[in-house]
Structure to design on (548 residues):
């Protein structure tokens, strides 16, 4: 299958995005903010369709809206970001706006499915370059805040007392998430960002201890699921995003079953 | 030498005055039991000493100067403890995340940090917790881990906010013992807040009782007396001594036990965190 350019492009793009999503998603899961990530992607949908309306590439609308929304959520954090209902209302509103923008820009409607469910097989070289640059920016920003981010996630009360600027850290992190969501939506669409940003890291957290092991496994799982998904789609002719979503769910549920097996193994070790 | 000094200090949260015009001195090496009904301001006072809440009037001085946020000479065990159930994190990494956790960049744990953590865990008799998973620890073990964390970096002042919550009676005694032993050895000043006075009776040097916007600091006999406590609770209080125990009663009910049932709604520090 690698004789086709579009397959090569799909593997390259999905590879970049999966690694970024797995790593950023690890912290999203650690902080219990997965729903906020989901909301950001929906807000991105409004941005992408809005960008189409004014003649910009959807990716820039996606980035602009998710970044603005991520920063707003961070600044209002104590009031909004952990309130499921407020987030739910905002994300529905955003999807509604996306629909409205589509309504006024009818020729764009054919792109709606691609935005909602992704279209990795249509990625071109220029997009891959953009994704690579964005990916590097995202990971560098995450690396810069990683230490206080972990402290603030594990023990917010103590972190505050020790001088960690909680609000700044959480706002910067949501901006990082916004970038990752924008990239992820290019591959699996705004409705399915969970498949790469939450499924693999959540599975990784159940299977590993230690930050670096966890991050490595989250990135590896996301990468494996994305690539296997594309290959599966190539041979079955099913949609790529479905295949990735199915693999992601499979990986997560397999990991859910693992701790029981793991504990009994640990017990056996201690007994020996 | 005075470690903590309140000089006509007033602490307010929003519109509520938690402490009005309070003056007191806590001396070096003292073990202070901080008591009082829910919402009396135990957590708020500790946050003020940490420099997280400047007094709206008067002054607070810690080690003779204004409190400084992130002061390494203060060890802190906060009351609201976020628990992340799904995350598998070892005791060593959990404490490691708090060492220099305010610095930017990637996390790292040097051999020196590792040695420091293990040494402190050893001091509270919890060496094996370094390799154990946080999620698999009992309440008592987790508390010990947090106590070890508060002791890292040789603090001179230890603020322990309700460290006995969620521990059974036996583990409560063990926890008090560990704090007493370690702090006496190192000459650390301790503010230990609790709901129950009796367990601390053999350990504390003086009692700081908060209530009704007031703070009274003194020996057990000075503070745990009907007239003083009646003022702090704003209601008729009786103090009953029996079999080496002291019971603080209001209309025939023990105020400490009835307060204890409301532990989990304790929110006198102005923040809400997500409990999972």
């Amino acid at each position: 299958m690698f004789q086709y350019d579009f397959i090569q492009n799909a593997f390259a793009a999905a590879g970049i995005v999966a690694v970024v999503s797995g790593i950023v998603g690890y912290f999203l899961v650690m902080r219990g903010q997965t729903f906020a990530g989901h909301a950001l992607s929906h807000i991105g949908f409004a941005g992408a369709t809005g960008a189409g309306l004014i003649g910009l590439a959807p990716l820039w609308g996606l980035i602009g809206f998710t970044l603005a929304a991520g920063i707003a959520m961070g600044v209002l954090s104590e009031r909004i970001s952990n309130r499921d209902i407020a987030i739910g209302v905002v994300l529905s509103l955003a999807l509604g706006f996306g629909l409205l923008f589509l309504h006024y820009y009818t020729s764009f409607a054919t792109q709606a499915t691609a935005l909602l469910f992704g279209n990795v097989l249509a990625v071109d070289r220029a997009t891959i370059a953009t994704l690579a640059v964005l990916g590097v920016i995202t990971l560098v920003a995450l690396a810069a805040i990683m230490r206080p981010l972990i402290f603030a996630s594990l023990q917010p009360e103590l972190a505050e007392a020790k001088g960690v600027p909680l609000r700044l850290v959480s706002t910067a992190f949501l901006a990082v998430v916004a970038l990752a969501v924008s990239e992820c939506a290019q591959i699996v669409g705004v409705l399915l960002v969970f498949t790469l940003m939450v499924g693999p890291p959540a599975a990784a957290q159940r299977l590993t201890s230690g930050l670096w092991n966890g991050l490595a496994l989250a990135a590896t799982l996301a990468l494996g699921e994305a690539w296997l998904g594309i290959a599966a789609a190539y041979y079955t002719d099913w949609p790529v995003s479905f295949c990735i979503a199915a693999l992601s769910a499979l990986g997560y549920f397999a990991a859910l079953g693992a701790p029981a097996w793991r504990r009994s193994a640990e017990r056996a070790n201690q007994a020996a | 030498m005075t470690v903590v000094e309140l000089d006509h200090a007033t602490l307010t949260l929003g519109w509520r005055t938690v402490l009005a015009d309070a003056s007191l001195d806590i001396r070096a090496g003292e073990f202070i039991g901080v008591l009082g009904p829910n919402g009396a301001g135990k957590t708020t006072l500790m946050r003020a000493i940490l420099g997280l809440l400047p007094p709206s009037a008067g002054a607070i001085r810690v080690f003779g100067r204004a409190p400084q946020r992130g002061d390494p000479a203060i060890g802190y065990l906060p009351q609201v403890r976020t628990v992340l159930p799904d995350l598998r994190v070892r005791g060593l990494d959990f404490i490691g995340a708090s060492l220099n956790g305010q610095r930017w960049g990637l996390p790292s744990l040097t051999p020196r940090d590792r040695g420091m953590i293990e040494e402190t865990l050893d001091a509270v008799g919890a060496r094996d917790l370094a390799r154990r998973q946080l999620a698999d620890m009992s309440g008592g073990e987790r508390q010990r881990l947090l106590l070890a964390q508060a002791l890292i970096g040789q603090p001179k002042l230890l603020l322990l906010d309700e460290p006995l919550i969620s521990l059974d009676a036996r583990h409560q005694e063990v926890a008090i013992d560990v704090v007493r032993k370690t702090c006496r050895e190192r000459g650390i000043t301790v503010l230990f807040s609790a709901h129950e006075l009796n367990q601390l009776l053999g350990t504390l040097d003086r009692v700081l009782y908060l209530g009704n916007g007031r703070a009274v600091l003194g020996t057990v006999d000075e503070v745990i007396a009907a007239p003083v406590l009646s003022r702090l609770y704003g209601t008729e209080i009786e103090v009953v001594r029996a079999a080496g125990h002291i019971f603080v009663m209001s209309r025939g009910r023990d105020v400490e036990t009835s307060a204890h049932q409301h532990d989990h709604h304790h929110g006198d520090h102005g923040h809400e965190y997500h409990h999972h």
Notes: The interface with chain B takes residues 29-30, 32, 78, 82, 143-148, 150-164, 202, 205-206, 208-211, 214 of chain A (CB under 8 Å). The CA atoms of residues 171 and 228 of chain A lie 34 Å apart.
